Amino acid sequence: MNDRLLVGSKKGLFELRRQHGEWSIAGTRFLGDPISMLLADPRDDAVYAAEALGHFGVKLQRSRDGGETWQEIPAPAFPKSDADGPSVSYLFCLETGGADHPGWLWCGTIPGALFLSKDYGESWALNEPLWGLPERKEWMGGGFDQAGVASICVDPRNSGRITIGVSTGGVWLSDDGGEGWQAASEGMHAEYFPPPRNHAPEVQDIHRLVQCAAAPDTMWVQHHNGVFRSTDGARSWREVTSIRPAKFGFAVRCIRTIPTQRGSCRA
Amino acid sequence: MARVAFTANLERHLSCPVQTAPGDTVRAVLDGVFAAQPRLRSYILDDQDRVRRHVAIFINGERIADRDRLSDSVGDADELFVFQALSGG
Fold it and tell me: Does residue B89 lie in a domain region?
């Protein structure tokens, strides 16, 4: 059992330690600065903390000693374009690349874009195929002014298979490491949007997308109006209707237990 | 050379003492500052090198007019102040 926990919060980064069964705050960093995402990379034990400084923009910090000391590294940024060009306003999610790509990191941002670093966060490149999708212009803000890439899943069997969740913009799937993208929201519906567009990918508000490590074809989405499950790798989805007392939320997580039967998975 | 001062709150994140820098526009002066402290750029300017939405720049107490291209003129005797904008309530 782990006795140390790093918690990113809107008020900074907190280190919690457990002694004699009791958790207490053992340290703080970036006190007062909102931490929008925290990632511990199990491949090399680096920890990444994304900051959302109200006045001074998004920042990215990296620790290579378990959170004792931190170094600011470049945050994902859009290429220079023109006076109306985009600028990253929020680092929404961070994920590690596959086991076969040490040092690779994926980052989802607001506005809705995906960035890849191949050098432990020292530099970032915009995923142009996703940004260039004509359908992206239909994405909308869901809780923020602009759409954001809220979740990234790198398939544990094939690190070139990447699934992302967009708030709001549905689920998108790439089978070739991000070179091409296809909508993967079949079966979802948005209760807050009038028909017939309530089934359209761009209106699906994906709060969180996760992939079962033990049965990777099983994926779960915490959607604005419920939970959806896929058992065919995001190609189709069915709503889980048995959730009580409330189906709204932002967190869904696969429990990494050995499946009791092939393909089973709990969230 | 123009004198450049930054909000003290920036010192929480990185060093940015009062300094002088050459240049006859806001862009040129700030580029001179960033040359010595590259990390400071992303705290003041966004991805497209515009002034960040919640940052304000004044020349001798007058807010600059051009937040996109930073083309406002700066003289050798001028003082630039870089602040947080008053945002929110």
Answer: no
Domain that holds residue B37: 2-84
Kindly report whether the global pTM for this prediction surpasses the value 0.80: yes
Burial B5-38 (b: 16+ CB within 10 A, else e): ebbeebeebeebeeeebebebbbebbbbbbeeee
Question: Which member of A72, A83, A86 has the closest CB to residue B47?
Answer: A86
Q: What is the pLDDT of residues A199-223, one digit of tens each?
A: 998 899 999 999 999 999 999 999 9
B83: distance to nearest CA of chain A, Å? 9
On whether residue B37 sits in a domain, the answer given is yes
d(CA A123, CA A105): 10
- B41 within domain boundaries: yes
Q: Please give the ipTM for the structure prediction.
A: 0.93
Q: Is residue A110 within 8 Å of residue A144, measured between CB atoms?
A: yes
Q: Domain count of chain B?
A: 1
> Scanning every residue of chain B, which has its alpha carbon at the shortest distance from the alpha carbon of A87?
B47
Q: Nearest CA of chain B to the CA of A93: how many Å?
A: 19
